[in-house]
Amino acid sequence: MEQLSTSHMELTVFQNWCNRFRKLFYQLIAITALLHVFPFVCMLHAQQLFVAPRITIYPTNKVTDYAVVMKPLVIANNSRRLFALRKFTIVDKRFYLAVDIETLRTEIVPFNSTFENNKEYTNTIMPAEKHVSPYFAALEFCNRPPYRLHNHGIRGFSKNCKGAVLTMDLCPSPYLLDRSPFHFVSSIFPKKEYPIPIAIAVSGKWLANHLDDIHWLISLQKNKIFDITWINHSFTHPREYRENPKILSKGFLLTKGIDVEAEINKTEIAMIEAGITPSVFVRFPGLVADEKIIKKVCELGLIPIGSNAWLAKGEKVRNGSIILIHANGREKKGVQILHTVLSKKKQLISQGKWSLFDIHDCILKEFSQ
Ligand SMILES: [Zn+2]
Predict the structure, then answer these.
(1) Which residues contact 272 (CB under 8 A, 6 or more apart)?
(2) Contact, 262 vs 300, CB < 8 A?
(3) What is the pLDDT of residues 48-67, one digit of tens each?
(4) Which residue of 2, 100, 147, 185 lies most exposed, with the fewest beta carbons within 10 A?
(5) Ligand 1: distance of its center to the CA of 359 in Å?
(6) pLDDT above 50: residue 120
(7) What's the CA-to-centroid distance between 26 and ligand 1, angstroms?
(8) Which of 132, 153, 177 is the last residue before a domain boundary?
C-alpha cells in the first residue's frame, strides 16, 4: 500500500513536470511565432500598406461661417497693406484670412471692428492699388489669355536664379506620407540654410486621412527645418479621365458637377482646422483647368502654380525651375530622381551656389515694379 502511494506520488510529480514542460513548450511556440510575425508587420508598415485611420479631425478648431470676402484691411498706422480673402469663426471668435499684398504671405488676422468700414471689392471695381502691388500683378498675369488647359499659371522663374523651387503634391492616397524626401533634403542642405523653403500642395481628402503625417509636417515647420508654403490642391481631387489619351477635355476639375469654389473653400477650412495657414496659391489636380476654372480661382484671389520640372515625367531641373514630385507614396520615381538630382548638386549646395528658393520671394522678384 505504502509502495503504491509512493509510486502514485512519483507519477503526480512526473505529470506536474510534464504539464510545466508543455506550458513552456507552448510559450516558446507563441514567442517564436511573434518573433516571426513582428518583422512581417514592420515590413508591411514600411511598405505603407497600413492605411491611416479615418478620423474626424481637429474638432476644437471647428471653422464656421466661412465666406469669401475681397477687401483691404486698413491698419491704424497704415504700416502694412493687408487684403482680406476670407472671413470665418472659430468658437465665437471671428477672423480673416488675409494676404499682405507686398509680400504675398498670408496670415490669420483676428477681427477688428475698424475693418468693417472697409469697402468690399467686386469684379467691376478695380481700385488703383490692384495694379501696383506684386500680389495683384501676379494674379492678373495669371488671369489673362491664353488660358492653357494644361499647366496654366506660374510654371517657372528666371534662369538667372541659382536654384529652384521645390513643390510636393499630396493628392488623396491610402498610403502614409513618403517622408524620405524630407529626410534627404534636410540632410543634403547645410544647417545654415534652415529652414529650407518648400511648397506642399495638399488636397482636403489627404488632410482628412493623415492626422499623424500632418502633425509631423507641422513639427518640421515649428522646429525650423522646413519653411512650408501650403498650396490648395482642391478637396476631392477628381481623377484623371480621358476618352482619348491625347485629348484633355474631361477629368480632374473638368469633371462634370465639380463645384470649384466649394473645392477651394473646403480645402482652406480643412487646412485652418489642421492648424496651417492657406497661401494664395492653388495647384490644379493634374495641372488641368479650363478658362472658367482659371477665372474662378483668380476671382477667389488664388494664383495658379504649374511646373516645368515634373520629375517623374522626365522633365529636367534647371535654374529657376518649379520642381514637382509627389510625396503621397504613389510616385516613388519622382522622389528617387529628386534624390539623384540633389545628390549631384551636393557640392554646389554646400558652397552656397545652388539653393531651394521660397516661392513667394521668386514671384516677388518677377512682379515687383
Ligand atoms: Zn494631385
Answers:
(1) 61, 63, 88, 90, 97, 108, 278
(2) no
(3) 333 333 333 445 689 999 99
(4) 2
(5) 19
(6) yes
(7) 51
(8) 132
Measure 266 CA to ligand 1 centroid, in angstroms.
16
CB-CB contact of 118 with 73 (8 Å) = yes
Q: For residue 311, give the amino acid letter.
A: L
Which is it for the CA torsion 217, 260, 105, 364, positive or negative? Answer: positive
* Distance from C-alpha of 78 to C-alpha of 262, rounded to nearest angstrom: 33
Least confident residue range of 69-83, 311-325, 331-345:
69-83
Q: How far apart are CA 322 and CA 131, in angstroms?
A: 25
Instruction: Please give the distance, rounded to the nearest whole angstrom, from the Cα atom of residue 47 to the centre of ligand 1.
Output: 21
Last residue of one domain, picked from the residues 80, 98, 132:
132
SS3 261: helix
In a domain, 17, yes or no: no
Tell me, in angstroms, the distance from the centre of ligand 1 to residue 207's CA.
Answer: 13
Residues 6+ apart with CB under 8 A from 245: none
The single-letter code of the amino acid at 289 is: A
Summarised one tens digit per residue, pLDDT across range 1-47 is 445 455 555 666 667 776 777 777 777 766 666 655 544 443 434 33
Gap from CA of 110 to ligand 1 centroid (Å): 32
